[in-house]
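The aim of this short unit is practical: by the end, you should be able to scan a pair of folded records and say something sensible about each. We start with the first protein, listed as its amino acid sequence and then its structure tokens.
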Amino acid sequence: MNPYNRPSRPPRRPQGAAGAYTDFDATELFCPQCRRAVPVRKRLLLVLPEGDKYEYLCARCFSTVGTKISRDQKPLKLIV
């Protein structure tokens, strides 16, 4: 088999692999105060019906550099 010869079709992915990476967490983001990419800390800001809202803070100056809503996989059940 020639190592430089590409197969005619791409290899198949196993079932379920398409949804394997649906939620990522940032480790570094650009901080406008520090004017560089810095490590960030993730802090829970709000608990919403559609998911939890997180705030990313600069690890050096503690300014807000971004937000994220982590969507829950399970539907929310409210008990009144």
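Turning to the second protein, read its sequence before its tokens, just as you did above.
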Amino acid sequence: MPIVLKGDKQIENVPSIHAKALRINLNEHIYGTFAEIGAGQEVARHFFRAGGASGTIAKTMSAYDKDFSDAIYGIEDDRRYVTEARLKKMLSHEMSLIEQRISREKHPDKIFFSYANTVATIDFAKKYKGHGWMGVKFQVAPDEDYNEIVLHVRFHQIDAKLQQETLGIMGVNLVYGAFYKHNNPRKLLRYLYDHIDTDMIEIDTINFSGPRFADVDNRLMSLQLVKNGMTEAVMFGPDGNNILPARILYKKNILALRGSYRPVTKVNMDMYKKSYEIFIRENKVDVDKTVVVFEITLSNLRAEGEIDEQDFMDRARLLCSLGQTVMISNFKEYYKVVEYFSNYTKERLGLTLGVNNLVEIFNEKYYRHLSGGILEAFGKLFFKDLKVYLYPMVDPETGQLITSNNLKVHPRMKELYKFFKYNGKVVDIFDFEQDILHIFSRKVLGMIASGEEGWEEMLPEGIAELIKEKKLFGYDAKAVIEKE
């Protein structure tokens, strides 16, 4: 087996793409079809070139013409072809044909699969880099129901041919992983990048389903995408399921709130409600085209240098229970959040911040890696049509209310701060709940862990009950009873 160099790590015993395709072909039980529409015509080619494909491939096809594609898979309501809905229709249609045309009586030991992709590579003007959906529907045993792995990719290469080749490699990795790594989805996820650098192609959404993945939490798998550097951010809808960032952010006004939410408190929700009321009154902001995103950075998910995945699940679950959309990102700096959103929209952007967060933004140490330093960062942060909505705080020592008018930044940053403030980029939230300003997540967390009374009143309705029911954040009902 060859040795593959990936970043600074040396990974031994990684089979070549040829070896993976050949192993599939030589497995007498595996039998299925490849359907590739749009620019994705590369996956089946690897299996043909490996040899022995007649024992594996029942059919390959490409309905490149849209009318032919519609005749086979049906017409999409939105007339779009590079979508998850299209991919799933392809997988289901091709699988039904296998079931109809290949006799189970004649082939009792066959395990069927259907691989499909629908892809748009970079355009001629190189304005849109391209993206696509790919997936595999497969059995592990002849008498077992089908499993499914579906993922969305975004290309980072600027050459259509290179994008197609990268897609072909990832497609082989996906089919190989489905049959030989399905018992360990986390490893399967990493193996998707065998012989591919993570800066070539990004996986920003993945979902596992079926009997072999009954215990897989797709939110945790999304966390692995961010953790492994396969994407910069993933998103979850109010129902707790993965959602494609582009689907919810495209051409939308976006109000983002960053926090630890450990746990989410009444202050967090007051920040959201009051800043949202201001945001939707801004010029050109259409409520029907506005989305609110609660963002948690990966750096806030670390415990002793490692990601505490259970802790992540707890925070996401509570925010989703409040009907919110959650984003987990790799972004440490706020300007990177703005850059990310700007990939999807040119509409209004808003950031809701507490006083401490805004003061931290003006700390030069976060921008030493930029050639232009803090000025470059702020040029990126405020270049778009963005405003900061500032939630006040009470100084614990003096009892003074701190707003944009009296907060203190480093002396070297005073003039820079004044520039943005007096140009209307910083907007104070005045209609806040005065009696909850004393609430801090870290205080609530300490009270929960120690069994101290009264923390329930600091949280939004229904959150305390969920914490107790699920025993989140170190809550111990027995310890509370014994203390009483």
